[in-house]
Specification:
The complex is a heterodimer of chains A (325) and B (546). Chain A is mostly helical and 325 residues long. Chain A contains 13 helices and two strands; from the N terminus they run αααααααααβααβαα. Chain A has helices at residues 2-11, 46-56, 119-128, 137-148, 151-157, 164-176, 184-189, 198-209, 212-215, 235-239, 250-253, 285-297, 303-314; strands spanning 226-228, 261-263. In chain A, helix 4 packs across helix 6, helix 8 crosses helix 13 and helix 12 crosses helix 13 (303-314). The longest helix of chain A has 13 residues, at 164-176. Chain B contains 13 helices and seven strands. Chain B has helices at residues 2-27, 32-61, 68-85, 93-147, 153-170, 174-189, 191-196, 200-229, 232-343, 349-381, 393-407, 428-444, 501-510, and strands at 389-392, 413-419, 423-426, 451-458, 462-468, 515-521, 525-533. In chain B, strand 6 and strand 7 form a beta hairpin. Chains A and B meet through helix 1, helix 9 and strand 1 of A and helix 1, helix 2, helix 3, helix 4 and helix 8 of B.
């Protein structure tokens, strides 16, 4: 009888108020400026990220066991490639320059042509790309278990141990942990007037007034929109030798309006990630600034303006694990 | 029992229905958290959608100087869209399909909006740059022209273009555009002046930015209008409307199911209680019956016990009787035998005969007593049965009287009469018991010399015997126990007797289907009337132990 009553009550439980979770507030900006400071920290599963870091440097991830992610995203070079176009063992030259991995979690889309909406999709594609990893999560997991002795490390981090999806998850966790907060400019935005030099402040003024901040904006100082390269002058005509990788987003959408359209790169840690642009043609910060002013803003900058802007850009170098990346 | 079975079947069906329905309700229960989360996500969809429109307008007007909010809002919208794809579990498949159709419609609007916003972001950045930069470079040009001695012609053209652009920025109509284009041409035609003033390059930059504004601002405004006209808010509202209706439907169904569940639970409880009550009633009845049976058994036991007690009493009385009544003749036998042994040779013949007679008499008494006891015993054991044979009743009775007269030395005067047909079929031995006892009692309990009448008469079916004496009489209160073994009348205790005689009579009559009645008056005499069937059948089944 008690069971009967209990079952009846259980089946007829009245509505209960569900707790309202905290909602994110996407429309609120903290500074009212075109640029925002990066969050000082992000939640990270440290054991997973640590395992992911090992995988990032692990050639066994690739199909032939010869190429690691870190071959083109080098720790020595702020997880970018100092070569204009990356080259890895037995593979053709990468068609574009490898950008830095720092702060990828803040980018609205991934790859120069903004082909991928999520980091997951991007990684999945790179793993199977015959010119990059030429691998698969399954294959990587097999090789890690057979040759890498990773079984125990995974066991410590994942309840189900070394599985293809856990390889993927660990790598993602590491990549999401790659944030560089607390740049001098961020400290300046947060109210520390002495965090950057007077010249850098002047540079920031120019950055806004000349229209750089129209595209390099938000907390990643870029990475939140796509833009055509060569708005005011034809960049590619001047450079010459246009190849399909120069078509940018057109390669993704096949829409004429997207020809030469690229994701606006983030300028976080830009002082450390030369060479610049998708083709790696700008070898210095100053030459990149000049080129951008010429082709995107339609003007020639005075050397002093270039120097001021470069000074400003150098204040965007943040901290990774408390040090310069 | 049929009603009980029907009740149980109904109860079983109710219980099975209850369990099935309860399981169904639990499986399809409206998870309040799930419902709250889904409803909240739907509202969030609309909040974000309108927030997005507002942010686009702000970005267009320069109030919002970065797109992070747009990116974050779109990202959350896509996440919500994915989350909303998973319809709440309490919705039946058809409702989930309806919801999915509404979400499909919303998805189309979101995808469209996403594309438009992406295009808007790129285009707006370009136009904003020019809108921001044109005044800067225009002011710079005017200042430098003044410094280099321009008398107003060149700077005036710059100002005209600035004013035209300002007007165009506010009202992007055809004549405003024409005005900009005119001002642009006038400035371009003054390029010689600019060259002279060394302002040619920046003048061209200013013209380029003016062109950007003129050419690309209308498309940006068009994109804004398109973004605002995408019916994503309405589509999101329709999803919520649809969901609310489906949710209310599910609620109504849940209420109906709950009512049915309650009814079934009630049915189960009522039927269960009925079953329990009926079971208890049956138990009570069975208990009552058991109690009755027990009481009957108890009564039977008491009867048996009483019988046992009576038998015990009978035995005691028998022992008392034998120890007393048998001792008297035995003592006589023993003493006469001893006397004969001691003095027999010296005594004369007459004296010896006297003692032999005494022994014979006492032995006869004992023999009769034993005969009575055996008869009673046989009757008690159910083995006393008559063995009828044809006899001449008048001769049998006359011999009986004569034997009695002889054995009593004619102490009483017998008046014997016989009437009717003397040929009968009767058990001689049993008849001897009945009449011998009655006549012997008459002798024993009436004064010497008194008259004893013995009348025998036969009818077509019966033989009727009456024995009248003029003796003590029997107290009327003791007549009911008169025929019980060992019972003796209270006024006859001083006379020797076993108390077996009338019991033997009664039993001997019983097995012959005979009857006996008694009339008695204290001090005046007693009359026994006996009736026995004239033709006694030798039938085993007539036997009835007393």
């Amino acid at each position: 009888m008690a069971l009967l009553v209990g079952a009846t009550i259980a089946a007829c439980r009245g509505p209960a108020a569900a707790p309202e979770p905290r909602e994110s507030e996407p429309f609120r900006t903290t500074t009212g400026q075109p640029l925002e400071p990066l969050p000082l920290s992000e939640p990270v599963d440290a054991p997973r990220a640590s395992l992911g870091e090992a995988l990032f440097k692990e050639p066994l991830l690739s199909g032939d066991g010869k190429v690691a992610c870190s071959d083109c995203h080098s720790e020595k070079h702020a997880l970018a490639d100092e070569r204009a176009k990356s080259e890895a063992a037995g593979r053709p030259y990468s068609p574009v320059n490898s950008p830095t991995m720092y702060n990828v979690r803040y980018l609205f889309k991934l790859a120069w042509g903004a082909r991928f909406d999520t980091l997951e999709a991007h990684n999945d594609a790179l793993m199977t790309n015959p010119n990059v990893m030429a691998s698969s999560w399954d294959g990587a997991a097999r090789r890690l278990a057979a040759k890498g002795g990773y079984g125990e490390r995974f066991q410590r981090v994942f309840s189900d141990g070394l599985t293809p999806m856990n390889v993927r998850a660990a790598l993602l966790e590491y990549e999401r942990s790659l944030v560089t907060p607390n740049a001098p400019f961020d400290r300046y935005l947060r109210g520390d007037a002495n965090a950057i030099s007077e010249r850098a402040k002047l540079g920031y003024g120019l950055f806004k007034a000349y229209g750089c901040a129209s595209c390099h904006q938000g907390m990643a100082v870029g990475g939140n929109m796509v833009q055509r390269v060569g708005i005011m002058r034809d960049y590619f005509a001047d450079r010459g030798k246009v190849t399909p990788p120069d078509w940018g987003r057109f390669n993704v959408t096949h829409l004429e309006k997207d020809r030469f359209v690229f994701r606006v790169p983030s300028l976080r840690n830009v002082a450390l990630t030369a060479p610049y642009f998708h083709d790696g043609t700008a070898e210095t910060l100053e030459s990149a600034v000049r080129a951008m002013a010429r082709y995107q803003l339609g003007r020639e900058l005075e050397p002093e303006d270039v120097a001021l802007l470069a000074d400003f850009l150098r204040t965007l170098t943040g901290e990774y694990r408390g040090k310069a990346p | 029992m049929n009603g009980g079975l029907g009740l149980r079947v109904t109860l079983g069906l109710c219980l099975a229905g209850f369990v099935a329905l309860a399981a169904f309700i639990l499986a399809h229960a409206i998870d309040d958290h799930e419902q709250a989360r889904y409803a909240r996500d739907l509202r969030r969809l609309q909040t974000l959608d309108s927030g997005l429109n507002e942010a686009v307008l702000k970005a267009r007007s320069g109030l919002l100087t970065q797109y992070d909010p747009l990116v974050a809002a779109l990202r959350e919208l896509h996440r919500l869209r994915g989350a909303l794809r998973k319809a709440p579990a309490f919705l039946p498949p058809r409702s989930a399909d309806e919801l999915a159709a509404a979400l499909d419609a919303y998805d189309k609007t979101l995808t469209r909006k996403d594309e438009l916003i992406e295009a808007f972001k790129s285009e707006n950045s370009v136009v904003q740059t020019s809108l921001l930069y044109f005044p800067v470079i225009a002011t710079s040009l005017i200042d430098r022209a003044h410094a280099k001695g321009d008398r107003g012609g060149f700077s005036e053209r710059i100002r005209t273009l600035s004013a035209a652009l300002m007007l165009f920025e506010t009202v992007a109509e055809e004549d405003a555009k024409a005005r900009v284009l005119r001002a642009q041409e006038e400035l371009r035609s003054a390029l010689d002046t600019a060259t002279a003033l060394e302002l040619e390059r920046d003048t061209l930059v200013a013209i380029a930015h003016a062109r950007v504004i003129v050419e690309r601002k209308p498309p940006v405004d068009g994109l804004v209008r398109e973004v605002l006209s995408v019916p994503s808010f309405a589509a999101a509202a329709r999803v919520e409307e649809r969901y609310t209706a489906l949710y209310h439907g599910a609620l109504a169904r849940a209420v109906a199911q709950k009512q049915l569940l309650f009814a079934l639970a009630l049915g189960v409880i009522v039927l269960g209680l009925t079953e329990v009550i009926l079971f208890m009633r049956r138990s009570a009845l069975a208990l009552g019956r058991a109690k009755d049976e027990l009481s009957l058994a108890h009564d039977a036991l008491a009867v048996e016990h009483e019988k046992e007690r009576l038998r015990g009493e009978l035995r005691n009385r028998f022992i008392t009787m034998t120890s007393h009544e048998f001792r008297t003749p035995l003592t006589a036998i023993v003493s006469s035998a001893e006397l004969l042994e001691s003095f027999g040779e010296r005594w004369d013949a007459e004296h010896r005969l006297d003692h032999v007679q005494r022994i014979k008499k006492a032995a006869g008494t004992m023999e009769r007593m034993l005969e009575d006891v055996l008869t009673i015993g046989r009757a008690e054991a159910g083995v006393l049965r008559p063995s009828p044979s044809p006899i001449r009743l008048d001769e049998f009775c006359r011999a009986l009287v004569e034997t009695l007269e002889h054995s009593t030395n004619r102490s009483h005067s017998f008046r014997y009469t016989f009437l009717g047909d003397p040929d009968v079929t009767m058990d001689e031995r049993l008849l001897q018991h009945v009449l011998g006892n009655l006549l012997g009692n008459a002798v024993k309990y009436s004064p010497l010399g008194s008259e004893i009448r013995f009348a025998v008469r036969t009818t077509a079916d019966l033989c009727l015997f009456s024995v009248h004496d003029q003796g003590l009489g029997i107290p009327s209160a003791e007549i009911p126990t008169l025929f019980t073994s060992f019972s003796r009348a209270s006024n006859a205790q001083h006379l020797p007797g076993t108390g077996l005689g009338l019991a033997v009579v009664k039993r001997a009559l019983d097995v012959q289907q005979g009857t006996i009645t008694v009339e008695s008056e204290l001090g005046r005499g007693t009359a026994f009337h006996v009736s026995i069937p004239r033709r006694l059948q030798n039938v085993e089944t007539t036997l009835t132990p007393s």
